[in-house]
Amino acid sequence: MFAPDIYRARRAALAQQVGSGLILLLGNADSPMNYTDNIYHFRQDSSFLYFFGLDLPGLAAVIDVEADSATLFGDDGGLDSIVWTGPLPSLAEQAQAVAVSQTLALSKLDGVVSRARDGGRKVHYLPPYRAEHRVWLAELLQLYVAAVDDAASESLTRAVIALRSVKSAEEIAEMENTLEVAYRMHMLAMRSSRPGVKEQEVVGLMTGLAQSQGRALAYPVIFSRDGHILHNHGHGYTLKAGDLVVNDAGAESPLHYASDITRTIPVAGRFNERQKQVYQAVLDAQLAAIDAMKPGVPYREVHDLAARVLVSGLAPTGLFKGDAAEVVASGAYALVFPHGLGHHIGLDVHDMEALNENWVGYGEGVERASEFGRKSLRLGRPLREGWVVTVEPGAYFIPALIERWAAEQRHAGLIDYDVARQYADFGGIRIEDDVLITADGARVLGKPIPKTITEIEALASA
Questions:
Q1: Domains, in order of start, for the chain
Q2: Residues 6+ apart with CB under 8 A from 388
Q3: Per-residue pLDDT tens for 301-322?
């Protein structure tokens, strides 16, 4: 955990922004895989972690804004639980570690919330993403389960987004910590991607490395020859010389801050000429985007810049016809770049998106687009100092998308579909880094992971 005063200051800032009422934060519980005692790896709710820091199931907390107090709710384990878990610090001891002086049994939470509600006080809570939290909130607040989401507090949600968006020096250090493990995972994958090796073997090596360092994965690894399938979690393919493999893999720090890194690996250590052309276009797009990032620049403009650089880089292929700016403005570029340039990252790999994706990524005069491609951009609003965002342009040749657009003659004046079909067996390329917005620019976090053609070929063929 961070120092106790950090959590105290975060709660004070939250209370000040919300202004009045009771702030209710629910921690996560253990979740069974197939029966009660066989559970998934526990992961605490990220906002609970941010304000109360405790990484154990069965907790809840209340901040009373008017009383300027915080109370932690939970139960001390008895002898039966000690048999299975070993001795744990008492609830009071845990609370002291995060600067909370008042604790109550979890059964007392209902009474505290009921008294506030009966007294006409506003009970603020965040939009739930787990079904058991919807049921719990419905019971606490005497609501229908179906009404719980709509009654979530907008003022609390927006305050949490504002606070969690800007990363402190301590948080950046945590992210650098986990990026050290991500660096090792990607270096291992580049050295291990050889003809005859199954994708699952490389995934196993990366997962084992993370676990050997006491880290969980930040998300299920995407490691696939079929890189044009953006979230492909199948790993049964046996690698062959000439394949390109998209490796999207990251770990969590001990305090659950995420890393999210993607590299594209040539199996057998060499890109062919066609692969080099596309790869360099993607890399140039990423480098141009990072160079353009600074406080005040709308990230949607950075996305469009990356798309223009990508289209220009693909000019020698003949895929797109006409000026790059026209191709991007029309949306034709989304044939090969159908997702957004990046997203917030922090305690969540897609940071705070459980709260409200549009509130996290839009506003300040920037509205989310509705057309294919741009609608998948999770972050469009102006960048701010202290944000950490991913920068992950890609180029993908998706046979079904090519054929659908060709049949519709969509953007026919800007796309040569005969050329597109020649790339139907190509797969995809993505390059991704985690980037801190500084006072006057941007900085890629973590130890540099090879990404130029020369660097990758030198490592992958060693």
A1: 4-165 (3.40.350.10), 169-460 (3.90.230.10)
A2: 167, 172, 175, 344, 345, 346, 351, 434, 435, 436, 437, 445
A3: 999 999 999 999 999 999 999 8
